Structures are given as structure tokens and as C-alpha cells.
Amino acid sequence: MTPTIPKIILDTDPGGDDAFALLWLLSMVKKGLAELLAVTTVDGNVGPEITFVGACKLLRLTGFSQIKVARGVIGGSQFNETDAAFLHGVDGMGNLTNTLEPCHLDYEAADYGDDVIISTLSQYPHEVTIIAIGPLTNLAAAERKSPGILKKAKEIIIMGGAFCVPGNVTPEAEFNIVYDVEAAKTVFSSRDDLIVIPLDITCNLIFTPAMAIAICKSHAQTPLGKFILSLVDFMTENSLAWRETGSQTGFLVHDAATLAYLYYPENLKFRRGYITVETGGEFTKGKTLLDNRRKTKIGANAWIAIEVDAVNLQGAMSEDLKFLISNLSFPNH
Ligand code: BDR
Ligand code: CA
User: Fold this and answer.
1) Quick one: which of 237, 236, 260, 264 has its CA closest to 250?
2) Residue 198's pLDDT is what?
3) Is 254 a catalytic residue?
């Protein structure tokens, strides 16, 4: 039997860990195991134009500049007190994007993320997987503009939320949720089978400089090799400074765990439940709540990852990234 190749929209706010998720996904495209229909960028780790440019440059770096890139919708309930440039760099990717080839697409002329989500899901009803690894602004805008549209996705995989661990923005809230709480609320109400990958498991995914060296090996001097090695060094230094990883050398590749769900699900264990988002709390805005009571799961809206085999997940990611860096199409790579 020929396997069905997933058609994918990646909704992202690059982001050091977003970059690794995108590279992992591109390795799957390269292997013929994914069809990436569009990258919809979103305001989040850094501003909307910067995430757009970052995504474009990454696609160009890896020889995938033909892939459609959309710009992020503005004007959700964005949490404007802070972005995450302090962690990811002012360009979202370790202040390294100025070392890459210029952006090949025009931000002003680009389609908006919500429109691309609506048109793609309408063109391929129940066939498209959305991987959402930034604030949920684009997805919610699509749902508001075209009610019911998110049900036309085959599945939606979200990196977001914190249930039994502290948040990473406030004591209670995780970044992708608190950055646009109304959007999160809209998306969590949109269907009953969301796949949610929270901080509870992603805080175990410490990607180290040693792993990056092993991946790049004989490709360390290529543009992609240099980028990966420098990004990991940058993220590692900042993550230690911000106590993201305790005393461990490395950084958290939160967003990459969404790929594991699609390609290596044996590394994750899930619980079925009902998630709500606190949109108004004075101290708890952005908190995600999971109804853990032992009762029938009528009304549940999500599958929530509760355990991860971090060693094997990162092993799979490393091998796939090695494949990507060894198989780029440019002669000078
Ligand atoms: C999430 O927040 C962002 O900073 C990361 O890119 C990730 O998507 C983790 O809380
Ligand atoms: Ca992200």
C-alpha cells in the first residue's frame, strides 16, 4: 500500500526552535514524506515582518524558495508587553539572518496567513495537517472569517500550553497561548480533536551544541552548517542566562516536538481531555487548564502529550537533519 503523504501548512514565528521544526519538516519533504503547501508566519517571538523574512531566508538557505510564505495577521489580542527577542535574538534567529542570502519575497505583497489557511483548507478539505508553533492568531482569524473552516483541516497540531509545569512567560502562562489568548480560546473551541504538545513535555527536549556538531560534521563549513552551529551556540547561551534549561548546556526545541507526533509518535504518550484557556485572570491570564477529573470524556477537545522519550525523539530529529544537510540541492552546499 502506498502511504499517504501528509499535506502540511506550518504556522510559525521563527524563533530558534521554530527554525529546527522547519528544518526537520524540510528533511521530510526532501525524503518525499511531506508536502509543504505553505508556511504561514505570525507575530510572536519577534514582529510579523521579521518572522516573515526569517522563514523566507530559511527556505532559501535550504533550496526551498518555491514554497509559499504568508504574512501574519495583525490585530489579535496580542500580548504586547513582550516578545521573545531576548531569547531568540532581535531577528528571531540568533541575530544570524544578516549572514544569509536576502529575502526573496515581498512582505507587503504577500497574502495573509488567515486567507492562505482558508483557501488551502477549502481546496483540500480534510486533507491538510496544520502544524501551529506560534501564537494562534492566524488560525483564529481564519476561523472568525470563515466559521467552521478549521474543521476542514485533517488535524491540527499545536505547540502550546503548560499544565503541570510553570509557564515560561508568567508563573502560569506559556508563550504561544498568552501572546494571543483570544485566539487560543477561539482555536480550542474550533474542534474536538486538537493535538496539543505542551511545555510539560517540551521542557525535556534539550538540544545541545554536541548534537549540532554531530549533525553538521563534514558540512560544518556550508551555509546551513554554519547557521545551525551558530544558532545553537546563541540559543544555548541565552537559554542558560534565562534559566530555561537549569544548568544544562543546550536549548529547548519545543516546536520540533510537533514533528515527532507526525513521524515518530511512539515517542509520545497522550491523555484525552478538555482544555480551556484563562483569558481574563489578573494573575493567571493565558493559563491552560486541563480537566483531569476521572469522568467520561464527553466534551473533550484535545489529545494532550503528557510523556516524551526525549532521547529517541532527538535522535530521530538529528538523523533527519543529517539527511537534510547531506542532501541539499545546491552544488556549493
Ligand atoms: C514557544 O514559545 C516560543 O518562544 C517558542 O518558539 C515556542 O513556540 C514555547 O513556549
Ligand atoms: Ca514558535
Assistant:
1) 236
2) 98
3) yes
Nearest-ligand number for the alpha carbon of 251? 1
Q: What's the confidence (pLDDT) of residue 331?
A: 43
44 alpha carbon – ligand 2 mean position (Å): 7
Name the nearest CA neighbour of 250 among 296, 218, 202.
202
Q: Which fold has domain 7-326?
A: Inosine-uridine Nucleoside N-ribohydrolase; Chain A (3.90.245)
What pLDDT, in 10s, does the model give residues 107-124?
A: 999 999 999 999 999 999
Which stretches in the chain have pLDDT values below 70?
Answer: 76-81, 330-333
Substitution site in 12, 17, 199 for ligand 1 pocket (most atoms within 8 Å of beta carbon): 17
Distance CA 167, CA 165 (A): 7
Q: Any idea where the domains of the chain sit in the sequence?
A: 7-326
* pTM (two decimals): 0.96
Q: Which residue has the cell 554531530?
A: 214
